[in-house]
Amino acid sequence: MRIRALIAAAALALTAGVATGTSPAAAVEGDLTNPLTPVGRDGSTTVGWNGWLYFGGETNAVGWELWRTDGTTVELVADIAAGPDDAFPHELTPFGEWLYFRAETPATGSELWRTDGTNTELVADIEPGPESSRPGNLAVLGDVLYFTTASAQSVLRSFDGAVLTRVGDVGPLVSELTPLGDWLYFAGIDDENFDSVGVYRTQGVGAERLFDHPASGLAAIGDWIYFGGTTPELGAELWRTNGATTELVADIWPGVASSYPGDFEVLDEWVYFQATTAVHGAELWRTDGVTTELFADIVEGPNTSWPRAFRTVGEWMYFPADTPQTGIELWRTNGATTELVADINPGWESSEPDSLGGLDGWVYFRATEMTADSNYFDGFSHLWRSDGDVTERVGFDGRPLLTDYLLFGQPDTAPAWTSTVFT
């Protein structure tokens, strides 16, 4: 494959500076107040891997760090930024036997880290010392992990598990790095005014421009990259490319008005997404590349339900949606039936589920619950899961299962229960 040859030929290969492993904390105090940091899509902060759901969460004692759960036990993976400092782990990306992510410490700044669930270590301090390279756009193509850094966002870097390589300059700034076939597709950003300038693909050095208008929301589905593309004639509408052909899929809101399609997810043979029209507002649409149709007008008429953050788990696709009756709550569809999963805060109050992730037939998500003994929110987000029939808080479903810091917002007077601790 050409991209492998380019890596082998690159002269700037660096030995990855893998640091000494960071051992998981043996004990932590304080409430896990913010599980599932909502930073991005596709497992960037939530990913099911090797029987565990990994996510970013916050406690008073360790700050924002990397956690995991198997649905019964919730464990701190590592206190990367020791003590109450925040590591802000995100861009969680499985690659080989490791889970890679971006995290920061006072000593290294924001750099590339990895964990195998037992050992957590710095891969490389690309900008030495407290300066940050801020790796982003993590994407796996074949047996190589690719990413960019903030100091050189037009430059692709790669890591094969042992050697870190500066692959080459692709031209425009890179956003939304998306693998398909033997190519890396991305949305190009102008380096002067930071506007989107099109869809490109690369095999390491230089880039081929496939769509020369603003674009966003790239998603590899089947043999195509779907995206929202904006042209003067059609506004922001649904497009796709396979590298050889770039075509309009549908002008959903006809004319120069924009439907702003986005949040693409596949279920069976269909691509589901959110789009907006004057008649239906922002609702759930789908396409198979030939037929594009409104799938569910959850709030009928021109009002909007804003379905988004779609996540397919098993035979169902889960997503948050907003209705006047329920507020923003968790919904799902199997392509035939679309239904409310649970009204966590009954009535018009919203639990605002987000950061959806799948593991063993369950969808995990972050939600905010109203306290049982008051008429206001407890102020904390909690970790929840649902299989469509049962929707429950993980770690506390009516009886204490974990230590008090894992009771997800329980009062300080909660008893100090014991828990399985990650060792």
Describe what this molecule looks like in 3D.
With 423 residues, the chain is an all-beta fold. 2% of the residues lie in helices and 49% in strands. It has one helix and 33 strands. It has one helix at 2-9; strands at residues 14-15, 46-49, 52-59, 63-69, 74-78, 90-95, 98-105, 109-115, 120-124, 136-141, 144-149, 152-159, 163-169, 173-180, 183-189, 196-202, 208-211, 215-221, 224-231, 235-241, 246-250, 262-267, 270-277, 281-287, 292-296, 311-313, 316-323, 327-333, 338-342, 354-359, 362-370, 377-386, 391-393. Strand 14 and strand 15 (183-189) form a beta hairpin. The longest helix is centred in the N-terminal third of the chain and has 8 residues, at 2-9. The protein is globular and about 55 Å long. The chain starts with a helix and ends in a 30-residue tail after the last strand.
Q: What is the compact description of this entry?
A:
The protein has 423 residues and is mainly β.
Low-confidence stretches: 1-31, 37-43, 396-423
Tell me the total number of β-strands: 33
**Total number of helical segments?**
1
| Biggest pleated sheet | 5 strands, antiparallel
- Principal-axis shape: globular
Helix content: under 10%
Which percent band covers the strand fraction?
over 45%
- Overall pLDDT metric: 82
Trace the largest sheet across and list its strands. Answer: 1-13-12-11-10
Q: What is the CA-based Rg, rounded?
A: 22 Å
Query: Which class do the helix and strand fractions yield?
Result: mainly beta
End-to-end distance: 41 Å
